[in-house]
Amino acid sequence: MTPSDASAGASAGRWSSLDRPPLNAAALKRALVTGDGLWTSLEVVARTGSTNTDLATRAAELPEGAVLVAEEQSAGRGRLDRSWVAPARSGLFFSVLFKPGDAVPQEQWGWLTLLAGVATATGLSRAAGVDTALKWPNDLLVSVEGEERKTGGILAERVADGVVVGIGLNVSLTEDELPVPAAGSLALAKASVTDRDPLLRAVLRSLEEWYGNWRAAGGDPAASGLQETYAAGCATLGRHVRAELPGGRTLTGTAEAVDTDGRLVIRTAEGKHEAVGAGDVVHLRSVH
Question: What is the pTM of this model?
Fold first, then answer.
């Protein structure tokens, strides 16, 4: 998509939904790209396939702190190649570029997915007064009439000299617009704020804070407070779960901890502990 395509799309759709106004790109840049902080650029496009794909393609030529936001994604991706589709301007769909360099050992870069979850939950709590729980490794959950529902997801992808982290968040979706019944949105969770501009500012400022602390600690999840904070907000811990692992193997048991490598530690019925670094985790109903 060319810049003219983006501009045309933004112009054509500017007043198509009074309940879903476009993001104010100029105001966001003034607030976030200050010259002395993490964020070095912020671009808002009307529509693209995937912000992660676009940013990853340009990562080598961009400095750390580039932010790409789309009002609509036609090929948004989640983990395991799942699609992420939502109406235009109904959520926040953006990617950021991190380049920790030598400050953080590369074996700790996997923590960026969990860091993004903590930062997003913290930012939403401050800006919207909504409790957002974390489902290992990359889902954001809210409570809708007492039911746990997924309202967002995180996808981290390694690039040549860094990591692109994409965040998708359902903001104003109604019950009729949900892609699946188990999905949710901030509006359905009775968030006090659904204006996307302050929400995006809050999440990006929280990301900057958490990333700065983690990087300053050399990527140490304990010293930066990341491991403890993630565990405190993780809805997976203490739950009976089924982990669907690469290769078709499944593991069932109780999720007991997140270790220093960011892996989920599961205790099986036989009392054995296994650390899971990748897989799809399903929260099961209590066996009691």
Answer: 0.91
